[in-house]
Design brief:
Length: 86
Amino acid sequence: MLGLTKLSNVPSRPETPLESLLARAEQYGRVGVHPHSEQSERYHVWIKFRSITGIDLEAKSDHGLPIHQAFEQAIERAELIRSQFK
């Protein structure tokens, strides 16, 4: 589930398709993409997921990143969080 931005409105880099990053992020849970309020083409990505019954977790990218970097950072953080509960 996307937040405020449609993927079709975001410029894409051919080396890392946004659809692929979105699919990876969605493997962890609900995904939100929010544009940076002061800089165009800068974003913040969050992934909300449940790792243990009754405990909701959230992995977030830093604010104001290029869209691909924001997705990659949120995914890395989700992987790190998930690995703590194995």
